[in-house]
TrEMBL record, chain A:
It comes from Candida tenuis (strain ATCC 10573 / BCRC 21748 / CBS 615 / JCM 9827 / NBRC 10315 / NRRL Y-1498 / VKM Y-70). GO terms for molecular function: mRNA binding; translation initiation factor activity. Interacts with the 40S ribosomal subunit. One of its GO terms (biological process) is formation of translation preinitiation complex. This is Translation machinery-associated protein 22. Belongs to the DENR family.
Automatic annotation (TrEMBL), chain B:
Involved in translation. This is Translation machinery-associated protein 20. SUPFAM superfamilies: PUA domain-like. It is found in: Cytoplasm. Keywords: Cytoplasm. InterPro entries: MCT-1/Tma20 (IPR016437), Pre-PUA (IPR041366), PUA (IPR002478), PUA-like_sf (IPR015947), Uncharacterised_CHP00451 (IPR004521). One of its GO terms (cellular component) is cytoplasm.
Amino acid sequence: MEAKQVLYCDVCTFPPEYCEFGLSFNRCKEWLQANHSDLFNKLYSEEALANATSTLSIEKEAAITQDLAKKQQKEEARIERELAKKLSSKVTIKRIERNKRKHIISISGLEVFDIELKKLSKQLSSKFATGCSITKTADKKEEILVQGDLSEEAKEFIEKLLQEKGLDEVKVEQIDDKKIKKKVEQIEEKKTKKK
Amino acid sequence: MFKKFTKEDIHSRSNIKSSAQRGLKSNFVGQFEDLEPIIDTIIPKKSQVILIKCEDRIQLYSIDNEVVLFQHFDSNLMPHLRLVHQYPECFPRVQVDRGAIKFVLSGANIMCPGLTSAGGQLPEENLDEGSIVTVYAEGKEHALAIGKLIMSVDDIKSKNKGHGIELVHFLGDGLWNMRE
């Protein structure tokens, strides 16, 4: 007995005939039309649609389709919202001074992009040959701490990573934690001296 | 069972012994006798089965990073839906009408009227309660769920009321969406 080859929809992972019950029907349809037009014609030609009406009463059928359409709309709105959120958020790389000459950098704001922090930290530590850990910040978000002054390299690395995901427009921001503080302190010191 | 199933529910993974693997195969064939000629293609002799233990005493058996079988406590072994899609003839099948698809795909247990109505189908011969069935839908080619009979097939036909099948695994649930 041979194993049957079953095609699965790339968008919702169901066999295409069940796409209509998924939450991303429209996108599934587009995908199927682009990639497997023969199957698309088989499933969604007018003839097939006419045959698909079932033994159910018409009202029930209508109620089901209405319900599904509503859910699908909601899902689409959700996806759009999420994309907008992704594009508007940014990654911050902060350089923190530990000793006079030693720094660590903290990378935060990555959790929005479906990046697995644990894997990324492993990657970073092997790439830069340093220690790298994940810690929770005060506002319950997670950040990656990398040992060593690597903010330039880390920035490049993360920009590349985001580009692979198709999110080029996301900003990666670099902050130098200590310097700003120092400047402020210096200014304040000057002020006090003047007085 | 897998409606809310995520990576956090996985506790441990381990390779199983080859003797245990043999036992697993004979167990599975014992349950679904039609599988006998193809069991060696599903679980090749030289392959390494990985046992993934999860929350709630669920055990998954995976080969080459694909879950093939699963088991709850020490109950019956059940096939993953992808396996059912590959070898649909080997498992007992029932069919639900079109109105039920929506509910099945959100994980509801299957009610008897959905199986006995014009769109539904039940096997001719009797199946006892507790046996594993694959669930198909009216007008569709592939299986959409795997369930366990709560009532025997004869009871479903005669009583025609209440829950008939307890849904175990369906398209789009946590196990289906799990990628390693």
